[in-house]
């Protein structure tokens, strides 16, 4: 039997090992049932912990949707780490940040009402369209103009450009069978990292947007809602996806299946 | 960016993170009521001291660290207790009555010291790397790594002892 420490096995399960180490460990696993069982149990532990934290966050988000509080203004500070967790699972920060902005000021919620004096100093202000636009403007960079209008009909070129930009393979999914026609793609920038935006026109005339960004570990789908917009966030194959539109959740999940299968 | 805009940005950023902040505070205290109270006080402190926020710092790392420091401060001031009760902890999960609710893992998390619980949350829930998690908890990345191995291995041991039960 091979002696391998839990340090190494946990690093393997967490995906922290170099490629060569991973390959070597896989060879050991193929030959050593004891080590393979231990890895299986560590994976189970890892999966349970991720699922537990995910479930708690889902509950918090459901509460936030069920108990909206007054809207607050302001520019959203972009943070790479929001991607990692917030939208847990991944999704795309910007859209989610904009969506969650509707939650309003937390101290105005009853559960934070222990110190009413503080609430007066942070009351809500009317929304300002210029700030909303400025927030959107911050997503643009010179890269946003690299895919010209004359190239939008060339899926191979678009796939190449998007792949180069986000550092991961990304081909615009064909959603015509679901009634969504691809119209254009562009590269946005969030916190110094490239973010692909693919726009589709739906049968009702409402746009559907698929955002993709280089991501981390696979993560299950999560629903994010803001007003009439429903979003679905997940991570797969090293890419964080966020699909958003005026569709219902079931429709988005069907579309996400198509995205994931391509 | 003007100071007022920065203030707005922090405020809006915190709002966007509110579900995550709630989860962090709830898991830190081990139950919802005290978690919400802690978060409320920490948010007040953050806004009163937004000048402490340094541009270029990840807002979520800063916010989590502020909540953690607030908890530590209150623990020192009041010599508070940190033991967690299963009955208070399980309601943090939205579907305790459903068949998919993982009672075993919930009890395991409940039994951990808050710092270990947060280490797991930051790495497996927030997907921070050990350096970032260490920044929040004011420990080295090596400490974070050691906690992960110890706690994950402990859960794996308990799962192995328990045998191949898939539900509950």
What is the string of SSEs of chain B from the N terminus onward?
HHHHHHHHH
Helix content bin of chain B? over 70%
> In one word, what is the shape of chain B?
globular
Give the DSSP E fraction of chain A (strand runs of 2 or more residues). 15-25%
What summary fits the major beta sheet of chain B? none
Radius of gyration of chain B: 17 Å
Question: Share of helix among residues of chain A?
Answer: 40-55%
Individual helix count of chain B? 9
Summary?
Chain A contains nine helices and six strands.
Structure commentary:
The complex is a heterodimer of chains A (262) and B (168). Chain A is of the alpha+beta class and 262 residues long. Chain A has 2 domains: 48 residues, no CATH class; 195 residues, MucB/RseB, C-terminal domain (Phosphorylase Kinase, domain 1). A 6-stranded antiparallel β-sheet of chain A has the order 1-2-3-6-5-4, with helices on both faces. In chain A, helix 1 packs across helix 3. Chain A is globular. Chain A starts with 5 loop residues before the first helix and ends with a helix. In chain A, 41% of the residues are buried. About 22% of the residues of chain A have low confidence. Chain B is mainly α. Chain B has one domain: Up-down Bundle (Butyryl-CoA Dehydrogenase, subunit A, domain 3), CATH 1.20.140.160. Chain B is 70% helix and 0% strand. Chain B has 9 helices and no strands. In chain B, helix 2 runs antiparallel to helix 7, helix 3 packs across helix 4 and helix 7 packs antiparallel against helix 8. The N and C termini of chain B lie far apart (51 Å). Classes of the chains: A alpha+beta (262), B mainly alpha (168). Chains A and B meet through helix 1, helix 3, helix 4 and helix 5 of A and helix 1, helix 2, helix 3, helix 4 and helix 6 of B.
């Amino acid at each position: 039997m091979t002696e391998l420490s839990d340090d190494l096995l946990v690093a393997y399960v967490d995906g922290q090992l170099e490629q060569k180490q991973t390959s070597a460990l896989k060879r050991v696993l193929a030959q050593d049932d004891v080590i393979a069982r231990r890895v299986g149990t560590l994976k189970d532990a890892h999966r349970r912990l991720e699922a537990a934290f995910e479930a708690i966050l889902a509950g918090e988000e459901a509460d936030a949707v069920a108990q909206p509080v007054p809207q607050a203004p302001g520019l959203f500070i972009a943070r790479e780490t929001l991607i990692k967790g917030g939208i847990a699972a991944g999704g795309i920060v910007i859209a989610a940040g904009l969506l969650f902005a509707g939650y309003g000021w937390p101290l105005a919620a009853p559960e934070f009402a222990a110190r009413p004096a503080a609430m007066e100093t942070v009351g809500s202000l009317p929304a300002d369209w210029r700030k909303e636009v400025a927030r959107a403007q911050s997503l643009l960079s010179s890269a946003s103009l690299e895919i010209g209008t004359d190239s939008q009909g060339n899926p191979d070129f678009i796939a190449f450009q998007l792949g180069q930009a986000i550092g991961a393979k990304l081909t615009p999914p064909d959603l015509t069978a679901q009634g969504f026609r691809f119209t254009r793609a562009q590269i946005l920038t969030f916190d110094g990292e490239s973010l692909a935006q693919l726009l589709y026109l739906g049968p009702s005339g409402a746009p559907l947007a698929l955002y993709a960004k280089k991501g981390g570990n696979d993560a299950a789908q999560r629903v994010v809602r803001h007003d009439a917009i429903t979003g679905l966030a997940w991570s797969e194959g090293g890419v964080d996806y966020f699909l958003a539109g005026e569709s219902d959740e079931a429709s988005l999940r069907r579309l996400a299946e198509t995205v994931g299968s391509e | 960016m003007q100071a007022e805009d920065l203030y707005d940005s922090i405020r809006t950023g915190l709002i966007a993170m509110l579900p995550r902040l709630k989860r962090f505070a709830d898991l830190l205290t081990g139950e919802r009521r005290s978690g919400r109270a802690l978060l409320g006080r920490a948010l007040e402190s953050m806004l009163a001291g937004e000048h402490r926020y340094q541009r270029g710092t990840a807002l979520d790392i800063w916010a989590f660290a502020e909540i953690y420091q607030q908890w530590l401060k209150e623990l020192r001031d009041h010599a508070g207790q940190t033991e967690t009760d299963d009955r208070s902890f399980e309601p943090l999960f939205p579907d305790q009555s459903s068949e998919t609710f993982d009672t075993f893992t919930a009890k395991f998390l409940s039994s951990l010291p808050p710092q270990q619980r947060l280490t797991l949350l930051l790495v497996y829930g927030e997907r921070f790397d050990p350096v970032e998690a260490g920044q929040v908890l004011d420990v080295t990345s090596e400490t974070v790594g050691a906690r992960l191995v110890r706690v994950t291995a402990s859960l794996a041991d308990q799962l192995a002892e328990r045998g191949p039960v898939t539900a509950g």
